[in-house]
Amino acid sequence: MSHAGASCAGGSIQDDPVTIRIPFNRPFIVGKELSYIAEAVANGQIAADGVYTKLCSRFLEERFAVPRVLLTPSCTAALEMAAILCDLGPGDEVIMPSYTFVSTASAVVRTGARPVFVDIRPDTLNLDEAKIEEALGPRTKMIVPVHYAGVACEMDTIMGIAAAHGLRVVEDAAQAVHGYYKGRALGSLGHFGAYSFHETKNFICGEGGALCVNDAACIRRAEIVRDKGTNRQQYFRGEIDKYTWVDVGSSYVPSEISAAFLWAQLEHLEPITSRRQAIFQRYREALSPLEAAGLLRLPRIPAECQTNFHMFYILLPTPDLRDRLMAHLKSVGILSVFHYVPLHNSPLGEKLGCARRELPVTVDVSPRLLRLPFYFGLSADEQGEVIEGITRFLRERA
User: Fold this and answer.
1) pLDDT tens track for 317-375
2) Is residue 240 domain-shared with residue 318, that is, in the same domain?
3) Which of 118, 142, 158, 280 has the fewest CB atoms within 10 Å, i.e. is most exposed?
4) What is the CA radius of gyration of the chain?
5) Is the pLDDT of residue 67 over 90?
6) What percent of the chain has pLDDT over 90?
7) What pLDDT shows up at residue 353?
């Protein structure tokens, strides 16, 4: 799940002689972001849990049918909270894909638990539900499905496995806000879900995230963990006469300035999604002839999944062709990027002994995937240049 800008690997354009005219991503303002920030300052509250934080939380709860949504400074913070709430500790094991952003694993590792990487499906690039049970062991405590590109994992199967083995499920829905599985919002299906509002996501506030608490029994503790291990929220509600330190936790609360920006974005949830859908569909239609010719492969979306159109990627036949196409696009001022370097092959992954299982699909797909420029303000002319650049390059080499 790309949680931060670093997930959009592909090199820095700092000090690069090539002028990038069409970036991979461009943050955007769609409504009253700046006036809401000014209003928050004028109201005298720019720290945590003000009016805009509450508006965002209530909107997400009602729109996505989540019992409690707690805004956080990042999706990483939300995943760390989920790990605490699932009582992960040294020796515990957590099932997850290797093809994901580092936050998915680091939230687990910092508790002393160990990731157990499972291969991905060749169609959606999501965690392969058919390979989960063979990876289970006596110390398995949790499963983390990552909804890659805003397309749902096979959640019925995953939740069934979790129920049969007494495991917790934390959805890494960093890329999947406003995506659905069989009509249910991603992030609302597991025991917990984690959202991202990083500037590369569909709905943004620079840095930001949210924890979806779907297990009602965990709501009160989640509030405590988020607020430095104190029961301060109960104090604010008048349920106790003073607050104190009662549990482990950290400062997992976002600035009200971030929430003010995010609220303006959430007010335009549907227009933003419609614009992204149009960009996605144009890429698909224009590049379909190249897929028919065997020159690339386009994203797959199962019938039971409703994507949020988070990204558009292509799979090239070979890593070398992917790299040459990426370099060609950059040479004409278009920034396309590769995505995750599989975590099981990373230095820390190897040090933790996470490279024991064969992951052939992950190893095959990751060096062939290329993400195309995709953002709210991408103009028709800019998108046309991207399409023409890809088409010309691949046709000339066919």
Assistant:
1) 999 999 999 999 999 999 999 988 899 988 988 888 876 789 999 999 999 999 999 99
2) no
3) 280
4) 21
5) yes
6) 88
7) 80
Taking phi over 0 as left and psi of -120 to 50 as alpha, with beta for the rest, 245 belongs to: beta
SS3 227: strand
State residue 398's pLDDT score. Answer: 66
What's the Cα-to-Cα distance from 96 to each of 43, 111, 128, 139, 186, rounded to whole Å?
43, 16, 10, 14, 17
CA–CA dist 80, 108 (Å, integer): 7
In sign, the C-alpha dihedral spanning 119, 120, 126, 130 is: negative
Q: Specify the CATH number for the domain of residue 257.
A: 3.40.640.10
Residues 6+ apart with CB under 8 A from 305: 124, 151, 152, 179, 180, 181
- pLDDT reported for residue 354: 77
* CA–CA separation, 184 and 81 (whole Å): 23
Name the residue among 371, 316, 296 with its Cα closest to residue 338: 371
Q: What is the DSSP letter of 244?
A: -
Domain boundary among 219, 245, 266: 266
